[in-house]
Amino acid sequence: MILPIIIAIVIISSIAACLAGLLNIAEYFFANYGPCEITINDDRKFTVEGGEKLLSVLINEKIFIPSACGGRGTCGLCKLKILEGGGTLLPTEEPYLEEYERQNNVRISCQVKIREDIKIEIPEELLNIKEYSCKCIEIADLTYDMKLFKFQLLEPDTIDFIAGQYIQLLTPIYEKSGEEVYRAYSVASDATQKNVIELIIRLMPGGICTTYCFEYLKVGDEIKLNGPYGDFRLSETNAPIVFIAGGSGMAPINCLLHQMKNENINRNAVYYFGANTVNDLFYLDEMKQFESQLADFKFVPVVAAADKDDSWDSESGLVTQAVERNLKNADQCEAYLCGSPGMIDASIEVLKKLGMNEKNIFFDKFE
Ligand code: FES
Q: Which of 77, 151, 171, 339 is within CB 3.0–4.6 Å of 246 for a Cys-Cys bond?
């Protein structure tokens, strides 16, 4: 009895999926929305041919909205207020919008197709984001799957950003990708160094941008990036700091440490950096240098799988376990977390358990 029901459900779902696919194909080839007018902040207007996604149209106009996933609908960062003409909210947008945002007509711009005239609101600071041409001037191995990339800015030749912010790198069309894609990377370098940007990138198997950077990008090549984005930054309090990061989450913390050095910020700070093995550790000399330059800073590398041959004699286990073992007076501290969503969620749980107020926990999740 159950089997026929399951078969019926599978058949109905397959037919529905086919119909939806056919509708999309039909829309792609036959729908003609004609010219549509885009109005931004009741001020700037331009006309585009309907049928494009709102995010792409804005990028073509050199208006850069945070879009860490490159328009794949998985980061939820490309939010915009649509005052008129966005159509109904799509199921693909729902997971990223809070109830108050839905009521205020906030939409996920990479999911909204332009089918009619549209009026949108974009915060002024996003309108100031620029596109930069730059030249790759150095590529250095940090670990077996992590590299440091240095880019010299050409046009404009300097960038102003706040330590902790990120940029979006544009991967050009190349052998393994038929389209240009943007990916977000936190800046690792000193924010006072305005004509060079340093990025720490981990190779993601099959990743369009990381494959390009690791296998195709060469010193001397030109590439485009835009930014800066993000509000991950040091607060202006004197609270002791707990930094927790893993992998390329090192980048924004390194940038914040430069800021602390440049601005003589003498706050007590302990940096727990989690790695799977000793071979995943990097920037140990840089961290030693910060220990000698900053008034009250300690770097604590934590290795999860420190096998016997590694002769590892420092913290081992999960980074959260090391925090749990060592952190005292968490209720007085602020925490800055960077890395994978799993590591960040686990760290938040541990910090709350140790008494830290959630409003003192700041994080940058690398999706
Ligand atoms: S760009 Fe990531 S969800 Fe739209």
A: 339
Model confidence pLDDT, tens digit, residues 262-300: 999 999 999 999 999 999 999 999 999 999 999 999 999
Atom of ligand 1 lying closest to residue 110 CA = 4
CA angle (131, 186, 360) in 5-degree steps = 125
Domain 33-126 belongs to what topology?
A: Ubiquitin-like (UB roll) (3.10.20)
**Nearest atom within ligand 1 for CA of residue 76:** 3
Q: Cα(63)–Cα(231) distance, rounded to whole angstroms?
A: 19
Give the mutation target among 63, 65, 107, 110 for probing the ligand 1 site: most ligand atoms within 8 A of CB. 110
What residues contact 189, with CB distance under 8 A and at least 6 apart? 150, 196, 197, 198, 254, 255, 258
Q: In whole angstroms, what separates CA 318 from the centre of its chain?
A: 23
Pocket test for ligand 1, best of 63, 75, 93, 229 (most atoms within 8 A of CB): 75
Segments of 35-156 assigned E as strands: 35-40, 44-49, 79-84, 106-108, 118-121, 130-143, 146-155
Q: Three-class SS of residue 318?
A: coil
73 lines ligand 1 (CB under 6 A): yes
Domain 130-229, second-level architecture = Beta Barrel (2.40)
User: Does the interface ipTM go beyond 0.95?
Assistant: yes
Residue with tokens 């093995």: 277
